[in-house]
Amino acid sequence: MVERVIRAGQHDWIWYMDFDILITNTSTSLTNLIHENLENATMPDAIDFLVTDDCNGLNDVRAFHDREKEQSGRSLGDQESMDLFLKSNAPLTQHVMRIPQWTINAFPEEIGCYDTHKMKWAKGMFVVHFAGAWAHVIGEDPTGHLMRKYEPEIL
Q1: Which InterPro entries match (predicted)?
Q2: Is residue 143 within 8 Å of residue 20, measured between CB atoms?
Q3: Cα(51)–Cα(104) distance, integer angstroms
Q4: What is the pLDDT of residues 11-63, one digit of tens each?
Q5: For 5, phi and psi rounded to 5 degrees?
Q6: Does the predicted TM-score (pTM) go above 0.90?
Q7: Sequence-separated (6 or more) residues with CB below 8 Å from residue 31
Q8: How far is Cα 76 from Cα 94, in angstroms, rounded to an integer?
Q9: Strands 21-23, 127-129: parallel, antiparallel or unpaired by DSSP?
Q10: For 44, which of 12, 84, 149, 152 is 20 to 30 Å away at the CA?
């Protein structure tokens, strides 16, 4: 799906997240967040891809996944694929910028899987992501439970 949107060439930026997020600050502009982070780049016009770390590293890069599966029959996980890609020094890695997790992918206290900034979601942050809620919250519907808990925090 993301590949199809990219190939259409109709957007400057595409924000891709899982279904288990809740935008908690509706006055925050994703465009402003992008531009604020690009202010820290040496060559902001060269940046095409913003990524965030968490306690597991990064997310999926399809080429590394496909190549590993073809060569060894082993499927790489999302974070492992991205990590290998960024360590490869491929020309495309020059277009990638890592930004703090909490800016566009904050995890709540129940899911303590933070990047090196160790910042959990706090009221006023743009989004809370309930990644892997099933592994951190006991109950029949962990993601739904967290969605209901954090819904009153929406600004």
Answers
A1: Glyco_trans_34
A2: yes
A3: 9
A4: 888 888 888 999 999 999 989 999 999 998 888 888 888 888 787 665 555 55
A5: -65, -40
A6: no
A7: 13
A8: 23
A9: antiparallel
A10: 84
Q: Which residues of 100-115 are buried (b: 16+ CB within 10 A; e: fewer)?
A: bbbbbbbbbebbebbb
Residue 17: what are its φ and ψ, rounded to 5°?
Answer: -135, 165
CA distance 38 to 32: 10
Token pair listed for 45 = 């016009």
Identity of residue 120: K
Match 């309930």 to its residue by tokens: 130
